Amino acid sequence: MNRKLVKTKDESYTLYVPELDEHYHSIHGALQESRHVFINAGLFYLVEKQKDISLLEVGFGTGLNAFLTRVEAERRQLSIKYCGLEKYPLTQEEYSKLHYYKNIGYPGAQQSFEQLHKSSWDETQMLSDHFIFTKLKIDFRQFESPEQFDLIYFDAFAPSAQADLWTAEVFSNMYNSLKTNGILVTYCVKGDVRRAMRSVGFRVEKLPGPPGKREMLRAYKK
Ligand SMILES: C[S@@+](CC[C@H](N)C(=O)[O-])C[C@H]1O[C@@H](n2cnc3c(N)ncnc32)[C@H](O)[C@@H]1O
């Protein structure tokens, strides 16, 4: 996949895919979006209730969500079991230019970030007392979850670029991959997406979005 490095408005980098005319993150701020949608509305929402969290990410990509989650796991002494799915992994040349570890204010941030990319595919590794990590090189439409998760970061490319990743069939798989009272968060609020989620049993809530985007979604399995 051809990808170009792009600086977003909060000074953090993202990647652009010309073939799909899609960015990996919001051009208004990659770091800002990841913190707002996935960390604040997803991880921190659950951390209010539990410290032990199993997490599935659809679209591991740059590793930004996984990295921020790992930093919070260490800071807050959580116990996170993280599984990221990715069909088109980044090369070392690509991830080494992202520099997400800068300005994070966390000791060992660079090593923590790189370790996520360097770790082997399709193997579970205990990266610290607070973070167990698995990266699966797979098309997520083929993913059959061996377990259920507390939280899903649904971070596929937008429906305008990859409509077949936002169907009722995909969300049914996501629903079945969640524990009861589990949640899914995503940046996309399109009507078709909300309808697909509701049709398989999710309760769907719109929340204020990150700067530059009006809204985001949190979906609940009750
Ligand atoms: C919007 S990007 C976000 C990635 C990541 N969460 C990040 O912060 O960089 C979407 C990701 O989904 C991956 N992807 C696209 N189609 C996929 C598929 N069918 N199965 C698994 N991953 C896919 C892309 O390669 C890309 O890494």
Summarize the structure.
With 222 residues, this protein is an alpha/beta fold.
Describe this structure in words.
- By secondary structure, the chain is of the alpha/beta class.
- It contains six helices and eleven strands.
- The radius of gyration is 16 Å and the shape is globular.
- The chain has one domain (4-220): Rossmann fold, CATH 3.40.50.
- The protein has helices at residues 30-47, 64-75, 92-95, 109-118, 168-176, 191-199, and strands at residues 4-7, 13-17, 22-23, 52-58, 79-86, 124-128, 131-137, 149-154, 178-186, 203-208, 215-220.
- 28% of the residues lie in helices and 29% in strands.
- The chain has an eight-stranded mixed sheet, with helices on both faces.
- The structure holds S-adenosylmethionine.
Q: Taking all residues together, what is the mean pLDDT?
A: 97
Q: What is the chain-wise order of helices and strands?
A: EEEHEHEHHEEEHEHEE
> What is the CATH class designation?
Alpha Beta
Strand content: 25-35%
Total discrete domains: 1
Q: How many helices?
A: 6
The CATH superfamily is known as Vaccinia Virus protein VP39
- Report how far apart the termini are: 38 Å
- The radius of gyration is 16 Å
Main sheet makeup:
8 strands, mixed
Shape: globular
CATH architecture: 3-Layer(aba) Sandwich
**Major sheet strand order:** 6-7-5-4-8-9-11-10
CATH topology-level name:
Rossmann fold
How much helix is in the residues?
25-40%
Q: Can you count the beta strands?
A: 11
The assembly state of the depicted protein chains is single chain
Tell me which ligands are bound.
S-adenosylmethionine
Q: Structural class of the secondary elements?
A: alpha/beta
Low-confidence stretches: none
